[in-house]
Write a structure and sequence with these properties.
The complex is a heterodimer of chains A (563) and B (161). Chain A is of the alpha/beta class and 563 residues long. Chain A has three domains: 3-163, 3-Layer(aba) Sandwich (Rossmann fold), CATH 3.40.50; 189-354, 3-Layer(aba) Sandwich (Rossmann fold), CATH 3.40.50; 362-545, Rossmann fold. In chain A, the strands form four sheets. In chain A, strands 2-1-3-4-6-5 form a six-stranded parallel beta sheet, sandwiched between helices. Chain A has a six-stranded parallel beta sheet with strand order 9-8-7-10-11-12, with helices on both faces. Chain A is globular and about 70 Å long. Chain B has 161 residues and is α+β, with helices and mostly antiparallel strands. Chain A binds chain B through residues 115-116, 119-120, 123-125, 127, 144, 149, 178-181, 302-304, 307-308, and chain B through 9-10, 13-14, 17-18, 21, 25, 58-59, 62-63, 65-71. Bound molecules: flavin-adenine dinucleotide and thiamine diphosphate.
């Protein structure tokens, strides 16, 4: 069998049903094999789109996303997407074509050292020098990408390798050779008992839950534990949906743009149960002042995350699903009374009452951006699969699109990649064809990957794009306003296409909304349609995202609302 | 404080780049690094000496562990390990100084491996301090060229590194 065919067969064995890609010279043998394959190929318009789409597919489904690009510029176009997936622990396999083996290292046409370029942003990578290794390498790549702390794996394949003939029996599963790779999944029983003990003894406990809970598929276990222990929950941006945000124990998102009550609660807590989180600086602010009174229990599958930023009292290395289940078992033995920390729960309730998130509907007849998000939430009853770009609209979406289920809020959090949301929505829609998939976009971000409008049309993907259009690079403008004397250096982007006409040029329904009273109707019509749609929502241009704790600040520096 | 990390890795292309890149990224300056095959040709041993400055060494070793090709990392305690490095030094030697140098070679149990009218090439092994002491004593004669391998180290006793 030809190696190109072997690659596809091996991918199918891993359960791959879709590849997001873009062809090129060294991929010709692979694309030729794809022509007859029942693997779906989604042709994007820029390789970055293929990478983000595979990422969105993975985040929405929990399966490994696969993207493919040609050597040289094709592969370098994938770099941003690989780095994005790396930062947010997304299982991705990126297949890149490479020049023939005898041309390697000679600055050959379209040669780029892809394994070298991507070294710091992959979980692992392979340069395939021998076609006989392909079945094993593909198996290992999927195993590495999806187990332990997930991440991207690059497989760089010289074109001559893909042309070779080799024996291949799909029934015969190749042995993996990974002597150095053994992720720990089961938490240490003694540590789990100790965790139960400190949780039971706590007077002001908080659960701080993140992306790891979603990756582990541990939302049910987390909910059970929170309810049993009667512990309020705050999540990170990537953790949104791991605990239902409409639940009374939910405090919404924590951190720089998190809710005041979540940040107050962490700052006053005497116990923080941190699950699948990495104490990012957008959450902790000034490290020395973060949760100064708390003991920490930290559950994470990656030992390197334990005590990386804050010293942890009870570290538990393991898979959140297994550890939380075991921890709940231990807690039940201790028979916690639900009113053992009533004053604390009253305090949390008081913070919620006194410092709610504010939704301003309209100012001077203009739509306020957070209200637009609130409307999208209302119209979709919080059940849409939401992707976002990066900027103010992302933070408003995080605050006001309350999320009930895991894998229903997808955002580039760690790298903060503008242009991520739209292609990610494409991948999410492929993974979940029956869901309403919405990209909540900024006008700046959308212009970075809007060429993928052709992709949604070509593949019949009914993705809805809601542009929260302030004609600014709003998040940067906000910082200029607050910290740089209002000098709006190159953040005004009034020069932009007519997005409605742009949509129409692609054959997509386009809408523009400028008045609050029209928004709901347009959203209903657009969301009810079978095809893709683009809605250009013009909002008050200089609205700011609040609350905000300035970078490196503490909860005392929080700006709660517009002055 | 100096740490000697002994890192067992798969003997594959690119592994050295992965390890070295990780140190650079996490802001650690490598003092010396020795890589060679082990008793099993499928594995290589890297002996890496680093200075623990601002950041604790623990974060680097944990990150190293995450590299798929890394099997085992030992942070070797100086007291519980033997360490050696190899020195080659080319030193000026004329009729007057030659015998004095040879005496020193004797004392340090070094070896003269090449003799020519104006210079001697000397080989010596020992721990870092001993090698440095020897070099210091040779300096007044005129060191023309000097090469050190960087240290390798092995755990004392029955337990393997
Ligand atoms: C403009 C902007 C503003 C932002 N503002 C905020 C903000 O206000 N608040 C906020 O929270 N974030 C914010 N972020 C995102 C922030 O930068 C971080 O990306 C985010 O906080 C990290 O989330 P996390 O701690 O859940 O870790 P993730 O990056 O989601 O990492 C997951 C963690 O879970 C672990 N894990 C993986 N699998 C498992 C498993 N099976 N079992 C157990 N553990 C596992 C991993 O090892 C890792 O430690 C912002 C981003 C942008 C772009
Ligand atoms: C690729 C990339 N370039 C630059 C940035 C820096 N950046 C962060 S937010 C932002 C502005 C985003 O503007 P827009 O998409 O219009 O969203 P808004 O903040 O206005 O809602 C910029 C430039 C980034 N995050 N990603």
């Amino acid at each position: 069998m030809r190696a190109a065919e072997v690659i596809l067969q091996a991918l199918k064995r891993e359960g791959v049903d879709t590849i997001f890609g873009f062809p090129g010279g060294v991929l010709l043998p692979l694309y030729d094999a794809l022509y007859d394959s029942d693997i779906r190929h989604v042709l994007v318009r820029h390789e970055q789109g293929a990478g983000h789409a595979a990422d969105g597919y993975a985040r929405a489904s929990g399966r490994v996303g696969v993207c493919m690009a040609t050597s040289g510029p094709g592969a370098t176009n994938l770099v941003t997407a690989i780095a994005t997936a790396y930062m947010d622990s997304v299982p991705l396999v990126a297949i890149t074509g490479q020049v023939s083996r005898h041309l390697l290292g000679l600055d050959s046409f379209q040669e780029a050292d892809v394994t070298g370029i991507t070294l710091p942003i992959v979980k692992h990578s392979y340069l395939v020098k021998n076609s006989a290794d392909l079945p094993r390498i593909i198996r290992e790549a999927f195993y590495i990408a999806s187990t332990g702390r997930p991440g991207p794996v690059v497989i760089d394949i010289p074109v001559d390798v893909t042309k070779e003939e080799l024996e291949f029996d799909p029934e015969e599963i190749p042995a993996m050779r990974l002597p150095g790779y053994k992720p720990t999944v089961k938490g240490h029983p003694k540590q789990i008992r100790e965790a139960a003990r400190v949780i039971a003894a706590a007077e002001r406990p908080v659960i701080y839950a993140g992306g790891g809970v979603i990756i582990a598929g541990a939302a049910d276990e987390l909910r059970e534990l929170a309810l049993y222990g009667h512990i309020p929950v705050t999540t990170t941006l990537t953790g949104k949906g791991c605990f239902p945000e409409d639940h009374e124990l939910s405090m919404g998102m924590v951190g720089m743009h998190g809710t005041p009550y979540a940040n107050y609660a962490l700052s006053q807590a005497d116990l923080i149960l941190a699950v699948g989180v990495r104490f990012d600086d957008r959450v902790t602010g000034k490290l020395e002042a973060f949760a100064p009174h708390a003991k920490y229990v930290h559950i994470d599958i990656d030992p390197a995350e334990i005590s990386k930023n804050v010293p942890v009292d009870v570290p538990i290395v393991g898979d959140a699903k297994r550890v939380l289940a075991a921890l709940l078992g231990e807690l039940k033995k201790l028979e916690l009374s639900p009113d053992r920390h009533l004053p604390w729960m009253e305090q949390v309730e008081k913070w919620k009452r006194d410092h709610p998130l504010v939704i301003r509907e309209s100012e001077d007849g203009e739509i306020m951006p957070e209200w637009a998000i609130h409307k999208i939430w209302e119209v979709t009853r919080g059940e849409a699969l939401v992707c976002t770009e990066v900027g103010q609209h992302q933070m408003w979406a995080a605050q006001h699109y309350l999320c009930k289920h895991p894998r229903r809020f997808i955002s580039s959090a760690g790298l903060g990649t503008m242009g991520f949301g739209f292609p990610a929505a494409i991948g999410a829609q492929v993974a979940c064809p029956d869901e309403l998939v919405i990209d909540i976009a900024g006008d700046g971000s959308f212009q970075m990957t809007m060429q993928e409008l052709a992709t949604v049309v070509q593949h019949g993907l009914p993705v809805k794009v809601c542009i929260i259009n302030n004609q600014y690079l709003g998040m940067v403008r906000q910082w200029q306003e607050l910290f740089w004397n209002g000098r709006y250096s190159y953040t005004c982007i009034e020069c932009q296409p007519d997005f409605v006409k742009l949509a129409e040029a692609y054959g997509i329904a386009g809408y523009r909304v400028t008045r609050p009273e029209d928004l709901e109707e347009v959203l209903r019509v657009a969301f009810a349609s079978d095809g893709p749609a683009l809605i250009d929502i013009r909002v008050k241009r200089e609205a700011n995202v609040f609350p905000m704790i300035p970078a490196g600040g503490t909860v005392h520096d929080m700006m709660e609302r517009e002055l | 404080m100096k740490h000697t990390l002994s890192v067992l890795v798969e003997n594959k292309p690119g592994v050295l780049t992965r390890v070295a890149g990780l140190f650079a990224r996490r802001g650690f300056n490598i003092d010396s690094l020795v890589v060679a095959e082990t008793e099993n040709p499928e594995f290589s041993r890297m002996t890496i000496t680093v200075d623990e400055q601002d950041q604790p060494i623990e974060q680097v070793t944990k990150q190293l562990h995450k590299l798929i090709n890394v099997l085992k990392i030992t942070d070797l305690e100086p007291a519980a390990s033997v360490e050696r490095e190899l020195l080659l030094v080319k030193v000026k030697a004329d009729a007057k100084t030659r015998s004095e140098i040879m005496q020193m070679v004797e004392i340090f149990r070094a070896k003269i491996v090449d003799v020519s009218p104006e210079v001697l090439v000397i080989e010596m092994t020992g721990n870092r301090e001993k090698v440095s002491a020897f070099v210091d004593l040779l300096r007044p004669f005129g060191v023309v060229e000097l090469m050190r391998t960087g240290r390798i180290a092995m755990r004392r006793g029955k337990k393997v590194t």
